[in-house]
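Tutorial, part two.
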Amino acid sequence: MVREYMIPSLTALLLLSLPSLAAQGHGQDPEKVLKSQIDDSLKEFASTPPRTPLQAAQFLIAAIRSPRHYDLSDGPFIRAPFQTLRKAQRNSGLYGRGEPNLVRITSAWAYQALCELDKKQFAEELGALRTAFAKEFGLEGAKLDQALEPYDPLQYASRMLSSNLIEILLSQVARYEMLIQKKARAAKARPWEAFQQKGVDFLMGTQKDGQWLVPAGPGGSMVADPGITALCLAAVASKPESQRTDKENQVIEKGIKYLISEQKEDGSFSRYLPNYVTCTAVMALSRSALPGTAEALRKAQRFLLAIQNAEKNGFVVSDRDYGSIGYGGDRRGDVSNTQMALDALRATGLPAEHEAIEKALIFLRRSQNLPGKGSYKGTRRTKDGRKVPVRAGNDGGSAYYPGNSPFGYDETSDGAQVARSYGSMTYALLKCYILADLPKEDPRLQAALNWCFSNYNLEENPGAKKSANKMVRYQGLYYYYLTLARALSLAGIDKVKDKDWRADLRAKLKTKQGADGSWTNKKNSRWWENNPLVVTAYALLALSE
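Running the prediction step on this input gives:
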């Protein structure tokens, strides 16, 4: 039921050199032009084979990943660099000679090259190399896995100018891979309807030079806001590229340049709600191909990893908020901020096995109403100042953070309280589990999925008590729509209770759209849902899933 998750950085990023390639190919298909360029580079290497084991390993990876998918059966073309690489293996299992950093880099590329050639055939060599690498450089787990995969398409696609032939070849192959994945994504694109265009037209009419403005305090002048701008840019970019107008493309280009100019030295994009704003910036940047986006995404990744509530910030595993990410200005994490951060981190190319995601899973499990290992048991302070015991429920859904829910609490027979699960956070939890590549049979994922199926509802954000004020049911409604769409799309789920959820959501959003093309939450303005820019962006992004 749950499909394998593909890293957004390899599916959402556009080809960095698309305009120049089209010019070089005189209007030819960029894919054909890239194939020709890669063939030319490979031929040049064939005439002057790689001399160092590092170059040999890099060449092998490029040749295997090229459109021709070369392997050892292709004779001397592959055999010569392969032999160069094998001769460089040391008794320890590592590859190359010289200073430690060169040995580390060469060994890492050699490891990935052997994996690409045939993991089974070279299992013994790979095992020895992995063991020696871990011992020599003091790495284990996700850090070891990450170090042993030095080829990063996102990184190499951005290397446009180089006098180094191997760098040129790797960048060509990386751009080719990204182009193919972009085409695959475009082929699966959802239909673009007139009411969606009406929403885009509303956003286009409210921007100024690619920026969206907010008041600078009560009665203040209007100023550009990076968070709102990023959200609106992502929404406009949700329109299929082939159908965009020149003006829409110009606004996207100007907006991306503005966002990059706003990035701080630490990688964030704002001092106000830095996690949310940085994550929405990643959302917009990962849909762009302009120069500077790749570096901006890498800096954003560093910032998001730096603010996680983990050991580097003084947290220990027993702390309730361990593994979470919060707004950025405080130390309290929540599922909403954490799911935004995980989505952004994956969009910047962070692997699912990274330790930051493993730590986030600890917090997410504590937020889930599921008894057993990893569930939460603690206390909370009520509005009147009392401290009451709280513990996990058993419905499989998610609260806002362990022991806390804006949708209320249930009393247990022994006087403890259970923070109620609700729709937007349970879909956020499901989304995180998919981003973390949990297998579909994992009980945590299955419990969250069961809650979503049992409580499927587009009339309200489900989870409130029947006795609760009706207003509670509609808080965060459009955020709920977006999170539902994103989670179910990532999970590869097309139907819920035999209903096409996409068709249901389209029909529902059509009825809620205003005459000017915007959307707002008319029943509950909480969490900025009285702002037509925010809510219209939510709606368009939900429809794009």
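Residues 307-455 form one domain. In part three we will examine how such features are distributed along the chain.
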